[in-house]
């Protein structure tokens, strides 16, 4: 069983701190790994308990060297997909009927409510809403009501100076 991404970030941060403060070379780092992990000189083939022991040893060495303890990286704020869809809907200034139509288009007519969507379907809808926002920002959106668009499309720039023709 491999070690977790969090352990990997913590280990890399500790190695960087030690290299900055105590001039930790590659050979010294591999010697520490070999001492802790039963003679193995690489972290690619150690398991979670060995990685935890290695992290404890690196933290001890960091404390001895006097380097300040940094966090590996703050986790991103957790926002659920329903909230994210609502934020994107507000950004687009869409009402519920417009969003329902968009969801029907994304799910090929099977579903029309955010509550009915599965996680992968919500991801598809989120990516579609983000693409819609991006297309409005560059002026290529399919806008049926230009007064409600985030950024009205510059028709002259799109059509090469001609006015749009109605069908």
Q: What is the rounded distance between the termini?
A: 62 Å
Strand-residue proportion? under 5%
Number of separate helices: 7
Main pleated sheet: none
Provide the succession of SSEs: HHHHHHH
Low-confidence stretches: 152-159
What would you call the shape? elongated
Structural class call reads: mainly alpha
Tell me the number of structural domains: 2
Overall number of strands: 0
Average residue pLDDT: 77
Rg over C-alpha atoms, rounded to the nearest angstrom: 26 Å
Helix content: 55-70%
Describe the structure.
- By secondary structure, the protein is mainly α.
- Helix content is 56%, strand content 0%.
- α1 (5-22) runs parallel beside α3 (48-65) and α4 packs parallel to α6.
- It starts with a helix and ends in a 9-residue tail after the last helix.
